[in-house]
Design brief:
The chain is an alpha/beta fold. It contains eleven helices and eight strands.
Length: 255
C-alpha cells in the first residue's frame, strides 16, 4: 500500500536507518530486504519524570482526583484491537474473586473497546474496570507508581514505550513474549502468550506476591538504566559521526 511504498523509498535513499528495537530491525530485513549493516538499533529514551519517586501524599492526591481504587492493575495505551485489552479482562475473570483487584484503563476508546466493555458486562466484571476520562501527563508517574502491576499484552509493538515507563516507575510488568516487548520489559518482566488468558492470570497472581513483586521491581529498574537519556544521546552522536566520516571518505575518493 501507500505506506509500504513510502517506507521502501525512504529506506532505499537513506544512509543509515535507526530502528527502535532489534525486533523492528528484523522486520525491516525480513519485509523490505534491507541490509543489516545499514540498520542501527538505538532505543528511545524514557521521560525522566517516570524515574522520579513520587511522594506518598502526591500519589494519594492523584488517586483521589481520578477516583482510583487503593489497589489496582494498570493499562496505559490505545484501545485498538492490536493492543489486545480483551485478553486482560478475560484474565481478570480467571482470578478468584477474593484475589481480584480493579483494572485502571487509561487511553482513547475505539470501536474495539466497545467489545471489551460489553464482554465485561456480560460476565459481571464491569465494576472492576475503571476508566478515567482524562489523565494529565504530569499525573501519569503517580498513576504508574501507585499501581500493583502494569499489563500490556499487545499482539505487536515496534517497541512498547508504556512498558518502559512502567519499569522506570518501579512497577512490575506482565507483557507479551512477542515482537519487541521482551526488549522493552527486560529480564524482570513476566512474559506471556497474548492469546492465553489463563497464563496471563497466573502471572498476575504470581506478581502480586511480595517476593516476586520485589524481584520484578529490582530487575526492571536495572534494565531501565539502558534507556538513560545521556546513553541514547551518545549513541545518536556516534551514528551521525559515522555517517559524516563515511561521506567525507567517499568525497575524498572522488577527487
Amino acid at each position: 500500500d501507500r505506506y509500504d511504498r513510502q517506507l521502501r523509498a525512504a529506506c532505499s535513499i537513506s544512509d543509515r536507518i535507526i530502528a527502535v528495537s532489534e525486533s523492528t530491525k528484523r522486520d525491516l530485513i525480513r519485509f523490505f530486504s534491507i541490509s543489516p549493516e545499514k540498520i542501527r538499533v538505538i532505543y528511545s529514551p524514557c521521560d525522566p519524570r517516570f524515574g522520579e519517586k513520587v511522594p506518598e501524599e502526591r500519589k494519594i492526591q492523584v488517586r483521589e482526583n481520578y477516583k482510583l481504587p487503593d489497589k489496582y492493575l494498570l493499562y496505559v495505551g490505545s484501545m485498538a484491537a492490536r493492543k489486545n485489552l480483551l485478553a486482560i479482562v478475560k484474565a481478570i475473570r480467571e482470578i478468584p474473586s477474593e484475589h481480584r483487584i480493579p483494572l485502571v484503563i487509561i487511553g482513547n476508546k475505539t470501536a474495539y473497546s466497545k467489545n471489551v466493555f460489553e464482554y465485561a458486562e456480560q460476565v459481571g466484571l464491569q465494576h472492576y474496570l475503571v476508566t478515567p476520562k482524562y489523565v494529565a501527563t504530569d499525573d501519569l508517574p503517580a498513576v504508574y507508581q501507585g499501581a500493583q502491576l502494569f499489563l500490556y499484552v499487545s499482539h505487536y509493538e515496534g517497541f512498547g514505550m508504556p512498558i518502559l515507563e512502567a519499569i522506570t516507575s518501579g512497577t512490575p510488568v506482565v507483557t507479551s513474549r512477542t515482537s519487541a516487548m521482551p526488549e522493552a520489559g527486560g529480564p524482570g518482566a513476566a512474559l506471556v502468550d497474548p492469546e492465553n488468558p489463563l497464563e496471563i492470570a497466573s502471572k498476575i497472581s504470581e506478581l502480586l506476591v511480595d517476593d516476586a513483586r520485589e524481584n520484578a521491581v529490582r530487575e526492571g529498574l536495572i534494565h531501565a538504566m539502558k534507556f538513560d537519556n545521556s546513553r541514547i544521546a551518545r549513541k545518536l552522536v556516534s551514528l551521525y559521526q559515522d555517517v559524516s566520516d563515511s561521506k567525507g571518505s567517499n568525497s575524498l575518493k572522488g577527487r
